[in-house]
Amino acid sequence: MVMAHPPHLPSSIVRTYGDRAAANYTLHLSIYRSIFEDPFRLEDVLAQGLPMPVQISWGAQDRVLHPGGAAILKQLLPQATVVILPELGHVPQIEAPQKLAAMYLAWRAKLPAASR
Predict the structure, then answer these.
(1) For residue 53, what pLDDT is reported?
(2) HEC profile for 73-97?
(3) Spatial distance between the Cα atoms of 53 and 44, rounded to a whole number of angstroms
(4) Left (φ > 0), alpha (ψ -120 to 50) or beta: where does 29 sit?
(5) What pLDDT, in 10s, does the model give residues 31-84?
(6) CA torsion through residues 93, 25, 64, 33, sign
(7) What are phi and psi of 113, to 5 degrees?
(8) pTM score of the predicted model
(9) CA–CA dist 58, 69 (Å, integer)
(10) How many helices (H) and strands (E) would you count in the chain?
(11) Span 5-17, average pLDDT
(12) Helix, strand or coil for residue 56?
């Protein structure tokens, strides 16, 4: 669900993640309930802006949060850099960690020294 192209994971890792998710069911249920009972609006927080440079990286095939959300964030943070990542989903840092790290480092290198 969260990846456009999930990497191959050995069955032992999949089983471990499944076991951990099952063991944390009560915690996850509590988190999801709190999200729906008292929704946090990122827009409200970002309306004041942020004091640091921001790069928004969003997978074009994100099925958890629609990629159109990047445009909303850009409106709230006009100084932000937005990068839409083709062929990636909700967790590009897992799907393409080297690509995402290289993009971040290149973006960061362009910042004034005081902002790094």
Answers:
(1) 93
(2) HHHHCCCCEEEEECCCCCCHHHHCH
(3) 19
(4) alpha
(5) 889 888 877 788 888 888 888 999 999 999 999 999 999 999 999 999 999 999
(6) negative
(7) -55, -35
(8) 0.73
(9) 9
(10) 6, 2
(11) 89
(12) strand
* pLDDT (0 to 100) of residue 12: 95
Residue 66: alpha-carbon gap to chain centroid: 11
Contact yes or no for 74/82 (Cβ under 8 A): yes
Pick the closest to residue 62 from 34, 92, 32, 29 (CA basis).
92
Q: Degrees (nearest 5) of the Cα angle 78, 102, 77?
A: 10
Tell me, what's the pLDDT at 49?
Answer: 84
Q: Between β-strands 81-85 and 55-59, what pairing exists: parallel, antiparallel or unpaired? A: parallel
